[in-house]
Specification:
Layout (H helix, E strand, L loop, with lengths): L4 H25 L6 E8 L2 E8 L6 E10 L2 E5 L4 E4 L5 E6 L7 E8 L3 E4 L4 E2 L25 H4 L11 H7 L27 H31 L1
Antiparallel strand pairs: 1-2, 2-6, 3-4, 3-5, 3-7, 7-8, 7-9
Length: 229
């Protein structure tokens, strides 16, 4: 049974279509640089660069991260890490205290299928990770000292406290008499009449009176005798 040219032509077109379909399917399932992504995040106060692989074929890939400076590699971040992708995504992390708006280049090598950088380069956020500030230590004025026995219990003195009787005997006597002091020249016993000079003063005064009267009488008699002559 001979095959017609038309049949041969149909078989050729079908084979070519199948090859193209398999080629597209193979390319769709192959590891691709577009299946990789990078992100700068924070783990508490520490910076982290995370690379995620969403290659469903699970081809093992090697990830290397570089800090960029003026278009060149300034340094490598840590050691290269390997990852096997998955449909949901598999991630690897690099510890890095990144600075705001810094640029990092992420290199991916996966067998013979991928050997390229993730585009565009990774740029860190404009705000750095929050640093934990230590709690301020209390100042001496804020510190409350624990009460001690010496502060709560009054100290005992070796010197005995003087009693009320002793203090009363040694204290000078105070004058409670508010009566006015006697005038100068007066006796302290004027109220009783003792020790007084009143009698003597009265006797002297009487003598002066008598002497004065006698002198007056003598003078009058003498004047009368003179006038009689």
């Amino acid at each position: 049974m001979s095959i017609s040219r038309r049949s041969v032509r149909i078989l050729g077109v079908a084979s070519a279509s199948a090859a193209l379909t398999l080629g597209f399917a193979g390319n769709a399932l192959a590891c691709n640089i577009k299946e990789f992504s990078a992100e700068a995040t924070c783990d508490g106060a520490k910076g982290v660069i995370t690379v995620t692989d969403k290659d469903a074929t699970g081809v093992e890939a090697t990830i290397t991260v570089f800090l960029e400076n003026n278009g060149g590699d300034a340094r490598q971040v840590g050691e290269a890490q390997t990852v096997k992708g998955s449909a949901t995504g598999t991630s690897v992390s690099f510890s890095e205290d990144w600075e705001p708006n810094a640029t990092y280049r992420v290199r991916v090598v996966a067998g013979k299928q991928v050997d390229a950088d993730i585009k565009p380069n990774l740029t860190t956020p404009s705000k750095a990770c929050a640093t934990e500030s230590p709690s301020p230590s209390p100042t001496p004025s804020e510190t409350t000292p624990a009460p001690s026995d010496s502060a709560s219990t009054p100290a005992e003195s070796d010197t005995p406290t003087p009693s009320a009787t002793e203090s009363g005997s040694t204290a000078p006597a105070t004058t409670t008499d508010n009566a006015p002091s006697p005038a100068a020249g007066s006796s302290n016993l004027a109220e009783t009449g003792a020790n007084s000079n009143t009698g003597m003063i009265a006797g002297i005064a009487g003598a002066f009176v008598v002497a004065g009267g006698g002198a007056v009488y003598y003078g009058m008699r003498r004047r009368g005798a003179t006038n009689g002559r």
